[in-house]
Every structure is written in C-alpha cells, then in structure tokens.
Design goal:
Layout (H helix, E strand, L loop, with lengths): L1 H18 L5 H6 L1 H14 L5 E3 L5 E3 H9 L6 H25 L6
Antiparallel strand pairs: 1-2
Helix pairs in contact: 3-5
Length: about 110
C-alpha cells in the first residue's frame, strides 16, 4: 500500500509541474503544499538505492528516477524545512498583527 501511495504522489507531482504555464509557475513555488510534497518525496525516496524496472525494460534506482523524472534532489530537504517553517512563521506573525490591530469590538 505504501508503494502505491508513493507512486501516485510522484506521478501527480510530475503531471502538475508539466502542465503549469510559464507565467503561473510563481504560484506553484509560493504554495506551502509544494514544499511539503517536495520534502516528503525527496526525503522518503531520494536516497533509496533499490532498482525498479522502467516500461522499456531497463533498470534504474528509485533515487535516480526521482532525480531525473521529477527533478527532486535529496540535498534540498533542508531548504524545504526552512521554507515550511518560514511559512508557519509568516502566518503566525500576520495573524498576531491582525488580532492586535483589527479589533472590531466597538462600544
């Protein structure tokens, strides 16, 4: 079951990135879910040396497949964590400022 879920996530991410128009790619990179998915796929599959068969019959390691087909690099996990925490910090600051200055309780 775990292998099936990984395959679906990897294929979904690959299809999404290929279908985005060039002028909308900024929205993809500003989405926190992008960095979460990137970090999960890169950390779980980016260093797996097991071989899998491709449709043409050749063998390739899972790490190489993730690197070549999706462009996910294993060394980029640190940036994914940093960006994800940055998003959490940004939303926390925005909500704190909003609660402080947008007081709608008038008497």
């Amino acid at each position: 079951m775990h292998v099936f879920v990984d395959a679906v996530v990897v294929k979904y991410v690959d299809c999404v990135v290929q279908q985005i128009r060039g002028w909308w790619i900024w929205a993809y990179y500003l989405n926190p879910m992008t960095w979460t998915t990137y970090g999960l796929v890169a950390s779980q599959l980016g260093d797996v040396p097991n071989l899998v068969a491709q449709p043409d019959g050749s063998l390739i390691s899972i790490a190489d497949y993730v690197r070549t087909a999706l462009g996910f690099e294993h060394y980029y996990i640190g940036w994914c964590v940093l960006i994800s925490f940055g998003w959490c910090f940004f939303f926390r600051v925005v909500s704190a400022i909003s609660l402080q200055y947008l007081n709608f309780q008038t008497r």
